[in-house]
């Protein structure tokens, strides 16, 4: 009987050691799992913060089109004014927007038949003006828009208190205004001048943020040199 009792005590001790090993293993597994969870939660939190910041920037940033002027072609041998040959689009940064780099901004335009994608090219000095004065369409005091091509637009600074709009680095900040010139003739955008009753639509697409909207219908007849179309 005494021998049987001793054997039972040994069995109890073995069971206790086994339980302790299992407990230690469970603690180790729980520690590893907790470490993985903490690491994953930190990664997710960092990613969520970055995503939130990027989303806020995307939502708050962008361009706004404040006006579009259309310049008609003058032909003394026929009708005095004949179709639109140039567009002057005034843009500014939206309220709360970050910096808008016009080097990485594109103009997408369509007349329903043709679609054009234009960008800025700083290599041509004549396609930039650091301070508009007088006639916006004067090719001497503004920009020489008559030499623009089907895939390029010109920039003229209208308001720039902090000097951020330069030829090589045209950046729009809050309060800045710039005029973007688009040539619409036989050799440029659409391959022809814009006639009467033509619906023009498109966007000015910045690198980050909401695009500026272009949407207007050309006049029913041309009796003036300059029109406010939007």
- Distance from first to last alpha carbon: 108 Å
Largest beta-sheet details: 10 strands, mixed
How much is the radius of gyration in Å?
A: 33 Å
Shape descriptor: elongated
* Beta fraction: 25-35%
Residue-averaged pLDDT, rounded? 86
Give the helix tally. 1
Find the structural class using helix and strand composition. alpha+beta
Secondary-structure element sequence? HEEEEEEEEEEEE
Helix content: 25-40%
Low-confidence stretches: none
As for the number of domains, it is: 2
Total beta strand runs: 12
General description of the model:
The chain is 26% helix and 32% strand. A hairpin with a 6-residue loop joins strand 10 and strand 11 (212-217). The protein is an alpha+beta fold and 230 residues long. Strands 1, 2, 4, 5, 6, 7, 9, 10, 11 and 12 form a 10-stranded mixed β-sheet that branches. The protein folds into 2 domains: 1-60; 62-228, no CATH class.
Feature tags:
230 residues; alpha+beta; 10-stranded mixed beta sheet; two-stranded antiparallel ribbon; elongated
Can you give me a brief rundown of this structure?
This protein has 230 residues and is α+β, with helices and mostly antiparallel strands. The protein folds into 2 domains: 1-60; 62-228, no CATH class. The chain contains 1 helix and 12 strands, in the order αββββββββββββ.
Write the layout of secondary structure elements.
Blueprint: H1 2-60, E1 63-74, E2 81-93, E3 100-101, E4 106-110, E5 115-120, E6 128-129, E7 152-159, E8 171-172, E9 177-183, E10 199-205, E11 212-217, E12 226-228
Parallel strand pairs: 5-7, 6-7
Antiparallel strand pairs: 1-2, 1-12, 2-9, 3-8, 4-5, 4-10, 7-9, 10-11
